[in-house]
Description:
This protein is α/β, with parallel strands linked by helices. The chain has one domain. The chain has helices at 3-10, 15-34, 43-51, 56-66, 81-86, 102-106, 115-125, 130-134, 145-154, 171-192, 198-221, 231-240, 246-266, 291-297, 312-315, 326-337, 349-361, 376-391, 408-423, and strands at residues 71-74, 90-93, 137-141, 160-163, 276-282, 301-307, 366-372, 396-401. Helix 9 (145-154) links the parallel strand 3 (137-141) and strand 4. Helix 3 (43-51) packs across helix 12 (231-240) and helix 14 packs across helix 19. It is globular. The mean pLDDT is 97. The structure holds iron/sulfur cluster (2 copies). One iron/sulfur cluster binds at residues 114, 116-117, 143-144, 146-147, 283, 372, 375, 377-378. Its cofactor is [4Fe-4S] cluster. GO terms for molecular function: hydro-lyase activity; iron-sulfur cluster binding. This is (R)-phenyllactyl-CoA dehydratase beta subunit. Keywords: Iron, Iron-sulfur, Lyase, Metal-binding. Belongs to the FldB/FldC dehydratase alpha/beta subunit family.
Amino acid sequence: MDNNHKMWSDLGMNLELHDQLCEVLPQAFGDVFLSQENRPEGMDYYNMVVADIHGIRPAELIEHQNKGGKVFGTFCVYVPDEVIFAADAIATGLCGGSQFWVPGGEKVLPTNTCPLIKASVGARLDRTCPFFRIADMYIGETTCDGKKKAWEILSEDVPVYVMDLPQMKRAKDVKAWAEEIEALKEKVEEFTGNKVTAEKLAESIKLINNKRKALERLYNCRKSDNLPISGTDALVISQIAFYDDPARFTQMTNKLCDELEQRIQDGVSVVPAGTKRIMLTGTPLAIPNWKLHNIVETSGGVIVCEEMCTGTRYFENQVDETKETVEEQIKAIAERYMKINCACFTPNSGRIDDILRLAKEYKVDGIIDVNLKFCNLYDTEGYFVERAMKEAGIPVLGIETDYTDSDASQLRTRVGAFIEMLNNR
Ligand code: SF4
Ligand code: SF4
């Protein structure tokens, strides 16, 4: 038994089923990523992370646990990693992005639940993902109805702590969110046995801010006329940001950005001049969901920005680093997080403003509004998004999809027609 199999077996995983996943992932990664031309050398790091996705990082998390540390699994960009790292614990993203996990979720959830929730529940209950096995506690949130009920199901199998996210953005809601962050801090302190001090919190605020700044730098490179990196590569970096060691991720992403900035200076582009620049907006694309990026970028277009939680919503805005007491720091964290514009808020006009702003900054030619099947929130909000884009004269294509490949050829036809229309404008 090799080291990874021994680790997975010790985690109580279903090895037979998990081996099936391990067989298809390298092929999928090779088809989507390694077939691209002129990739930056700095992508080698992320290739390596994905190649051993269920090996390297899980082993690090277990090592942390063996030293007495705790690991918390999270599912939403509203859950503040800063508080978790300040208690010498590790936060890791757990959103499932593969169809492989969906049937396991469907055993306990209605079929008309979004694939992200079904995959996340299936990955835990089918015991086919080491991250879902390793996490000592899951942190849920009251964002959408499907998730709220999923926490109740998961809590029968693993400790789950749920944060009550307000769904409006009045001053009293920001205050309520700060109270929820304070309650999370108390829970994390109790669970880890470690105190969250102002010094510790200042360190972790910096740690996570630096990660956001590195991602912002990466995205800034995508604003350039000559594009030094594909959207597909940028997406996998955003996805890895959710579970990699934050300091190492920041270092490797900054190193990649050095190369990308040099490419911009040298006039190196991964696509021919004039390639239509597309922005995606909508529901998150959890790893390994690379479907739409692959379709767009093998149909003559290129993705330059994602207004998504696996995109700008994750890194825009920093937490104020000047606060000195835990109370002030928590208020600053709450203020930063409440600037994220998710469709679970009402009203959510800030998201429309963001999309219009990003369309200008990234010089986009067209927008694809992508919605995960059965996500009622983003589907409904698509009405406002698409209307605002039409009013602004930005071509928009609305797409609803899931993790299966059954609609891939239909999507390819629609995306191809959209890009052709942009080319003929
Ligand atoms: S789409 Fe909303 S609920 Fe989902 S991760 Fe993003 S902020 Fe959280
Ligand atoms: S995509 Fe929509 S339905 Fe799915 S978890 Fe996110 S907000 Fe909920």
